[in-house]
Amino acid sequence: MSGEPDVSVPARALGDPARARIVSALLGDRAIPAGELAREAGVSASTASEHLRVLLDAGIVVVQHRGRNRFFRLSNAEVAHAIEALQSIAPRAEVRSLRQHGVSEALRAARTCYDHLAGDLGLRIADVLIAAGVVSELQIGEPSSPPEPFPDGPIVAAFGIQRPEGHRPWARGCLDWTGRRPHVAGQIGAQILGALESQAWITRRPGNRAVRLTDVGAARLRELESML
């Protein structure tokens, strides 16, 4: 018989600045090689290996072997949600360079959170979906089903929204550290990220999980917002 969840296990695993930088880099739902994660954490390759072993033992990351290289990613969406929620209550790190300032502003504007959009852009999209009745008011961690009848119209078409498949929640509130309120996760969040990338509304910025809203995307989003 199992007792209560032992939060000390992930807390100890995340309770190191270098490991915190590693998991933050992995929030973009990418498989990243150990060497790149070492650079992100600002530690040597051997030290990064030790940190990654701790994260593996705690079930926070998984490893994929590709030839002689090891690639790491977060274990699942629940881990990503927990890390994003911790970021919303964590103090802001001091910005020490112009580059850090630029990266911070880019992440605040628009970024990926595992397989969905976050930041100011993610919150704007959440507001559009709620105002259009596509999703109900979002509750942190609470899954919701699509309304019946299934929604249609220009907003659903523009965001590439389709009926849910499988057991993953269709919509779910994920706490955003930018606005300290939920953006949209779940199947619908992943569908929207995929649609916006395929339609060139957004492009990914190299080197981190920030994304950029293109001129086409900005114009289309303003058009959808004007319909509400």
UniProtKB/TrEMBL annotation:
SUPFAM superfamilies: Winged helix' DNA-binding domain (SSF46785). CDD domains: HTH_ARSR (cd00090). It comes from the Bacteria. Residues 1-94 form the HTH arsR-type domain. This is ArsR/SmtB family transcription factor. It comes from Microbacterium terregens.
